[in-house]
Design goal:
The chain is built from five helices and five strands, in the order E-H-E-H-E-H-E-H-E-H. The protein is of the alpha/beta class and 150 residues long. The chain has a single domain, classed as Rossmann fold (3-Layer(aba) Sandwich). It has a five-stranded parallel sheet with strand order 2-1-3-4-5, with helices on both faces.
Length: 150
Amino acid sequence: MATILLVDDEPDVRDLARDVLAPQGYRILEAGNAEEALRVAREHGEPIDLLLTDVVMPGLHGHELAAQLQVQRPGLKVLYMSGFSLARAQHEMLETRAGLEPGSPILPKPFSADALIKKVSELLGRPSAPRSPFARPRPGPDSRSDPWGP
């Protein structure tokens, strides 16, 4: 089970993200700001796989939080959330102004449940939707190896 540290100063955003990700099998740790996130991470003795953080918050911003946590937890993946409209030029400007690394993964707010699940799954290398234990691969059109098919 992957663990996600979710950091946003807006409780509604945290609630939404938690309610979407927890049923997908992720363990969610929550914090309302960067200082609280540093404390939660320090007190959590197990690995944290992903930091899901707002870019702009009171106090430390998301990139500053990520930098501190990545020193303590090498290999920590980061997904930023931003309420700014992210056209390509704006994304590049946001990276520069907010101190983000070029190409940093950013999820624009508001986001859909599907967009959040997809982005988190991509970063953690998991399939975006759990497969049913009853699902089986479908053969190609020229394959007759399916005993249940025509």
